[in-house]
Amino acid sequence: MDLVREAGNAATEEARLGALRRLEALPETDPRLAREAGRLAGFVEQWAAEPRLDFFWRDFRKEENYDFGIAADSPLHPLTCLYRGRMMLWANLEFGGYANPERWEKARRWFAIARDAHPDNPVLRMHLGQALPAPDVPAPHPDAPAWANAQRAALEQLTGIIHWWIDHRMAEDGQYGGGWGDDCEMWRWWTPVLLGFEDPKINAAQARFSSALLSQPHMRGGYTSKIYDVEHTSEDTSDAITPMMHLDPENPEWRERVMRLADLFENLWTGVNDRGFRQFKSTYFSETKVDPSPARACDTAYHPRAMQPALLLWQRTGDARLGRLFTAWMETWADAAARNGRGKPAGVLPGAVHWPDGKIGGLGPDWWDPQNHDEPGLYRWPGPVAMLANTLLLAHHMTGGDKYLASIRDMAAMRLRHAGSPSGEPQEAGGEAWCAARMGWLGGVLGKYRLATGDTGFDALLARDAPPYLSLRLNGERGPLEAALERTARALSINFEGYTSEVRYTDRVLRFPSIFERGKLFTEGISGIPSPDTGLLYATVTGDPGDAGYFPMNAVRWRTPAKNLAALVTDSGKDRFAAELFHFGDAPRNLRMELLLLAPGEYRLRVDCGGDTKESTLTVAAPRPEVTVTLPGGQLAQLFITRRS
Fold this sequence. Notes:
It is built from 23 helices and 14 strands.
């Protein structure tokens, strides 16, 4: 029985497999137990090495259980409960409509059975609420500001997690184990390092993955050949091309792929509706077909995802053709927002516009639920309205047209009007108060609006809804930012396995801490195990106050790995840039940066450090200029770039 305990308490699958194989091979092992050890060893081997991480799901979902071929009275039964608990946990995290209190309770019971038999298993302890220290967490520097110590720890731990996935899960064909449709989403949480820094391993992995996905048979036409809804079909294209448009924007391969999307947009997917506006004809389409069924005939707030890389190219280059197409499309949404049809308050940006009549919503009875998809709630308002609002904001940024801003201003005014309403006050579904109560997403959009336009009219709302980084940019408030960075550093400095070897769905890599929220694995929840905020990290290192996906305002890319460095962008725009920098090494460090927002002109560059000031001039003659500064070791440096008058 010593080998049973060794297998049950093993910290890794490899160690567990070794113990089970030895148990199976021992001559004195009971024949039934030897057979069971062999069966379980085969499963453990599959759990550790199967290319498809959720290989168990087809069998598990039938009975909400998994047949290991091991009797309930076997000494190995408690160990099977460890795997059953993991299966249920990840199914609950992956499938929103699947999780319920009974299934969380089932997972907890399985973990408890395994823990009672194997109390020294560290993975079990982690699942049951014990925070396990992650490897290689850097110690705080005594002279570094609190934000710098926290950001550095979070960035280095995040880099380590990304490297683990590349080293241990990336297969020969480029996949990570979740299938192309989920694996492609990985870059979304890589952004602090992928877009904020220069990491050769991560850059190469992204390029390899993007090229591999777009080379698949179903993608050879420039978009998937499988007709399905836009939320799902757009991922294979946009989540492959968009990161490469950030990393390698001058590469003609990626531009050609973007312009293929423009062709499909203009000639297949969209048309001019009965109101005279251009819109998508359906929620369901492929690279050759558009689903004509009336129930699915909706343009939605998810449709910007299909054009995400083309929107980025328009933003970066001002391409005239893209501008013509996208401004016409956004006029459709500006018109829909201004109307009050079907009970929608005038000024509220809807989630769907029906084709070809241009009516607000779909064929469902309520404007806020178009009922254009089989999954209940996926397209229900507000859903992804933030990405549509950011696209309208981009249209204003590119053209100066106030019509694209009208709905953003109107919704901000509504949010302010109802800011003091009691949370329990009855609200008519779809009415103004109901909408205002569901506009928490507006803070990120208004953050971009505020920094892009300088309009202070909604600062009162931003004081309430602004995320911590935006509070720093608007009023210099550091307390919330430091606290938020420390939470993220804490989240990434514990339970490393929860972000790596335990993960079974690649679109849920950073979701493990959420199992400790109230009402999930533990009814009352467990405190002290926060979830990481990679959006916050991305904002602090790049200066973009919101989403990297739509109208990105990232001002800088630090052309160095995210190692021994903290960088906090404190100001950015077409005519200025400022950041605080802390180098954790002892010797001076040359830091190269790529500046993404500065307009052509002559600039003054100043670096202040401990009373020592160094000044130079910078000439910006082309997009994405690069500059190098020297940072001392162990001291805070302040960088200022201002336009010369």
